[in-house]
Design goal:
The protein has 18 helices and 24 strands. It has 524 residues and is α/β, with parallel strands linked by helices. Strands 1, 2, 5, 6, 7, 8, 22, 23 and 24 form a nine-stranded mixed beta sheet that branches. Strands 16-15-14-13-17-12-11-19-20 form a nine-stranded antiparallel beta sheet, covered by helices on one side. A two-stranded antiparallel ribbon has the order 3-4. Helix 9 runs antiparallel to helix 10. The longest helix is centred in the first third of the chain and has 24 residues, at 157-180. It starts with a strand and ends in a 15-residue tail after the last helix. The mean pLDDT is 95. Bound molecules: zinc ion.
Length: 524
């Protein structure tokens, strides 16, 4: 399983058509490929990669078969005072919190490597490593530093080119050596039965220099080159005929029109940013806000423990904080806000309603809609409706296929996939309620649809660029997929699929059954 971080499908296949990715082209021609593989919500590195690797989505991980990672940053409200999870930052007891992710996935799902069962397993620079026998770099400190180092050192454009080549080469060289000298890495002298690879250089370069930069394109050419080396070596070692190589990305990308400042939100509302040590009396936590903002608010029902953050009721949010402000109105005052999603009071993991709002760009009028959900696991279905029949929240009514599903009936994820894969916010009627079922998710989510980005993590503005990837537009959510290698793999184009289909396809090729939590289906 090879994840190239931050690659938009249209960019990838354009480079193939131009003849610039010859190795990927050969794999594409000799295997399964799709130009429309839909990722998870939000289209951000760790939640999407967790879904790819487990073949399932997030949800109420305590009660359901699903994984427990809703976003890159979230608030752990089950402790009082709550803790702040940030997979990119140091924790109190760890070098960086990213190592919590394997445990955060929960016990109600399995990773691809756990599903493959007996045999050796290898994870090369991939942090989601449950079920692995060998991890490169060999210890957590080194792996943490590796990622941090790349992000820091590549800011220097001259140095970036050499570093990206080195980082890509290491990924492939390490895996080849796993096959050549298994005894050195594993207890038994058998090559790995399953391996995870993560090329992170593409994401680092995209954020720093943009998807349209020379360096970003050059880097994809280089990843093609090193993958060519891997294929050649596997062939010479006699393993290629028995190997399936899946190549995909975790999210695409976009460039925001402007970078916004969140600080006026605090002064206008009188709310203060919660921090477990620096401001324990804070009443708001903006877990993350690029083009998509995830807001936590302290509810009024603390059950006698002042440090406890209950979920606020809708009534709480309509008269919130010292100024008794209406949160739903205030969030639309944040420059660029166009969409809003929040829970109905009393939702459970079995049944509930998510409220939707959309601000019309011309009239400034706010329209409402809703997603209702019921059932768990494979029975999960959702119903989507809007008050304005001619101009709904996600713009589905203007499409012949998608509009057919707005009729008062409940639909499954694959029905939504068939009807919306070609549209902005594809799959959102299914993905949004799954996200809100996770108790780690926030109270209110807004989206600027990329018009403005804020670069905020846990309430604090960060330095950042206009290039990112969290919104629901096609360029941000549609990924390439190739599954190829062994001549046993059929040659076919799949018109559309979802990222959770990859793991069950690979597991089925091994003649095994995917874990019962898996939502994706076998593409063969
Ligand atoms: Zn990513």
């Amino acid at each position: 399983m090879c994840i190239i971080d931050d690659v938009r499908s249209s960019h990838f296949f354009d480079l193939i058509e131009k003849g610039l990715l010859p190795n990927f082209k050969r794999l594409m021609q000799n295997g399964i490929f799709s130009k429309t593989c839909v990722t998870d919500f939000p289209s951000v590195t760790y939640p999407t990669q967790c879904s790819i690797i487990t073949g399932t989505y997030t949800g109420d991980y305590r009660h359901e078969l699903c994984h427990g990672v809703p976003s890159y940053h979230w608030m752990g409200r089950y402790l009082a005072p709550p803790f702040l999870r940030n997979y990119g930052a140091p924790g109190s007891d760890e070098l960086i919190q990213i190592y919590k992710m394997n445990a955060d996935l929960g016990e109600n799902c399995q990773t691809l490597l756990e599903m493959t069962g007996e045999g050796n397993h290898s994870s090369i620079t991939q942090f989601i490593s449950r079920g692995t026998d060998y991890i490169y770099p060999e210890n957590k400190v080194k792996l943490g530093l590796y990622y941090e180092f790349l992000q820091f050192a590549m800011r220097n454009k001259k140095r970036a080119k050499g570093l990206m080549a080195l980082a890509n080469t290491i990924v492939v060289r390490k895996l080849i050596d796993n096959f050549k000298r298994p005894k050195k890495y594993f207890k038994s002298n058998e090559p790995p039965i399953g391996s995870n690879l993560w090329f992170m250089t593409s994401d680092v370069i995209m954020h720093l220099f943009g998807y349209d930069s020379y360096l970003y394109k050059l880097n994809l050419l280089h990843i093609d080159k090193v993958m060519g080396i891997l294929i050649k070596e596997l062939d010479e070692l006699g393993y290629l005929a028995d190997t399936a190589i899946a190549i995909t990305a975790d999210h695409g990308n976009y460039k925001a029109k402007s970078i916004g400042n969140i600080l006026p939100f605090y002064s206008r509302t009188g709310l203060t940013n919660y921090h477990p040590k620096k401001n324990v009396n804070g009443n708001v936590n903006i877990a993350e806000f690029g083009g998509v903002g995830m807001f936590n608010f302290k509810g009024s029902n603390d059950a006698g423990n002042e440090a406890y953050w209950s979920r606020p009721s809708i009534t709480d949010l309509e008269k919130f904080g010292p100024k008794k402000i209406n949160i739903f109105e205030e969030l639309f005052k944040i420059k660029g806000t166009r969409l809003m999603y929040y829970r109905e009071d009393g939702n459970t993991y079995k049944k509930g309603t998510i409220h939707l709002k959309r601000k019309d760009q011309k009239s400034g009028k706010i329209f409402s809609g809703k997603i209702e959900y019921k059932g768990i696991g494979k029975e999960f279905k959702t119903r989507y409706a809007s008050e304005n029949d001619e101009n709904d929240i996600f713009g589905f009514v203007r499409d012949d296929n998608a509009s057919k599903l707005i009729n008062g009936n409940f639909y499954s994820i694959d029905e939504w996939l068939d009807a919306t894969h070609h549209l902005d916010h594809a799959l959102y009627p299914d993905l949004i309620p799954r996200h809100f079922k996770n108790p780690r998710s926030s109270d209110v989510i807004i989206s600027t649809k990329g018009s403005v980005i804020y670069n905020v993590t846990h309430g604090k503005p960060q330095s950042g660029h206009a290039f990112t990837h969290d919104i629901g537009l096609q360029e941000s959510i549609i990924l390439p997929l190739i599954i190829s290698g062994s001549p046993e793999i059929p040659q076919k184009e799949i018109s559309h699929c979802k990222t959770t289909d990859i793991t069950p396809t690979l597991i089925s090729m091994l003649g095994k059954k995917p874990h019962e939590s898996v939502v994706g289906k076998n593409l063969i």
